[in-house]
Amino acid sequence: MRVGLFVPCYIDQLYPTVGRASLELLQKSGCEVIFLEDILCCGQPMANSGYEHYTTNKNYASPFLEALPNVDYVVAPSASCIYHLTHHLLKEELEQDKLQKFKEITEFLHDVKTNFVVQSYFPHRVALHKSCHGLRGLQLAKASELGGTAFSKIENLLNKVEGLHLVIPAQSDECCGFGGSFSVFENAVSVRMGEDKLKNVLHEKVEYLTATDMSCFMHLEGVFKENESVVKIVHITEILNSSL
Amino acid sequence: MKTLHANLSKEFLSHRKDADWHNDTLWFLRKKRDYAKDQLREWEQLRQAASEIKRHTLSRLPHYLEKFEQQASQNGMKVKWAWDGQEVNVLVTKILRENNVTSVVKSKSMLTEECGLNHHLEKQGFEVVDTDLGERIVQLRQEQPSHIVVPAVHLRKEEVGKTFHQFLNTEVGNSDPSYLAEEARNSLRRDFIKAEAAVTGVNFGIATNGSVVVCTNEGNADLGVHSKKVIIHCMGIEKILPGLKELSVFTRLLARSAVGQPITIYTSHYKNPRQYTKEYIIIVNNLRTEIYKDEGFREALKCIRCGACMNTCPVYRRSGGHSYHHTVPGPIGSVLAPFYNKEKNKDLPFASTLCGSCNHVCPVKIDLAGLLYKWRQKLTKETSQAVEKTLGFKASTELLKNKTVYKMAGKCARLKISSFVLKSSYNPWNKGRKFTDLPKETFREWYKRSNHEE
């Protein structure tokens, strides 16, 4: 299976280890991975701020459209980018079956690579933050406000990690307060949301906090640092890719 | 570039204890709602049914409104139509004058709040008393409700104690909730006896039998309607439902979504006037046809005003209802507000992280986050924007689509001097957060290097 790896702008620039863990994980799952070097960004930062009309031009959509025929799937370690691609940028460009080819990485490992055995060792107490776009946008798990049977692709994968003690803090599926430019223009509310998140995580006495989206962590890491918290931040791919 | 909402939120949050209390109280309601929802296995089917009923009704709105008018008139109700808020106010004034009424008891109606009815009537010399306890508290303080279901949720009991002492002559410093409620009840009883007319809002209008349905937990609407000879129900055009069968879906959803109760305590159907009473229904448009005409936003008219989107919204809970500077706050309010004033309310669709929780709690499944996203695109084009904002996003657009510029910018950011600037207090990001340490190389650089070495 040929998979195109899309490493979003902010992960490329700020969290290269997440890109690396994603690449290695996909290889471990038996995929031929092609790094989609020409794709920089999905356009979400501008679009969510009201400037979608700057990004719908060929410069944003076309690299994805060009990459698609050469691979079976386009995978990214960022639910919010995949959500933006499939619900906004490419929604009018592609049929539903083609849009299905864009997958967030845990969704891909869980739903497509069903035979993939997680062989990972991470002997730590880890809290989970359920990032909104993965949770509500891509239904990686059932959000607490919805009715119906509970499920969680994220927890299914994490529960297979040896040594890992998973903790679900209070309000774990409440937004962290990032929200793109919201975090700058609405600084006070954003920071308070991050502080409340920290309070609930600290209550669980964990060593790490994990999530499917580094965008939440861009903001949370800053809030944690400001509050001199000892809780470390780790992306889910880094846990799934860690070994003895 | 701080918006009005951002400034008001900051002010609200600066009273930390009160803000935490506000957040916790509304989260408590959200949890009660979750519990109530879990008691019904068919919860998601109910939401789906409600959403489809509303969609159907909206698709034939003129038909159902005409049917409703005809039925209600046949029942002896006097049906009037009002194009906007001003017309509502004039109509109510006229009715009161015709019937020689000088004092009115009102039971909670966000619609009359939207029209500024209290203010108008008071200016015309009428005495108006809001009879919902929360509404009464904010009315005494000359404030607007900060929430559509719990209008005084922004106030702690101590503040209510002070307000009651000032206006109702209660004991100084006594803020015991039972005592305050008892005193409010005594005072309201006198108001109920004194008033000559009752004004109510309407939760649902039933097309097949022409009745209006009013849901309250305190029974205050009933006290007014049952004891007065002049009764006025103000109903937004979107409140219409085809029949009683459809209503049954909504009575199961409304209170559960709002506060986690199985049903509202009083769900009253008013169909016929009694002998010697005059009962009016004013059907109000007030810009609803503008929303109706805009197919992209029409579904906002499905809203049944349960407030669930406010209780779940992490931004609303932390910033308080008044930060939205519009009658209806929170996610649904931010969708409606720009219809009333694009320029003044252009900040509200941005007062959200688009987390989508509001979509999931909405009993009629309005795509609130989607509509906020849609507004952002429209408002950016149709209202004035700060030049630096537009330029900033224009630059980001160029930066993130051009590989050479992108790589260069990344390299520049990694320079010592840039890192100093990024971490300085000049960077707005660093208010309440610390900028992350930039890695030595990007993923691209690592990929190139490691593959090259191989």
Automatic annotation (TrEMBL), chain A:
Pfam families, per database record: CCG (PF02754)
Protein name from the UniProt record: (Fe-S)-binding protein
Domain of life assignment: Bacteria
Organism: Salinimicrobium tongyeongense
Domain Cysteine-rich residues, every copy: 3-85, 126-220
From TrEMBL, chain B:
Name by which UniProt lists this protein: Lactate utilization protein
PANTHER family: LACTATE UTILIZATION PROTEIN B
Keyword terms of this UniProt record: 4Fe-4S, Electron transport, Iron, Iron-sulfur, Metal-binding, Repeat, Transport
Record-linked Pfam families: Fer4_8, LUD_dom
Organism this protein belongs to: Salinimicrobium tongyeongense
Keyword field contains Transmembrane helix: no
Superkingdom of origin organism: Bacteria
Domain 4Fe-4S ferredoxin-type: 293-323
InterPro entries: 4Fe4S_Fe-S-bd, 4Fe4S_Fe_S_CS, FTHF_cligase-like_sf, Helical_ferredxn, LUD_dom, LutB/LldF, NagB/RpiA_transferase-like
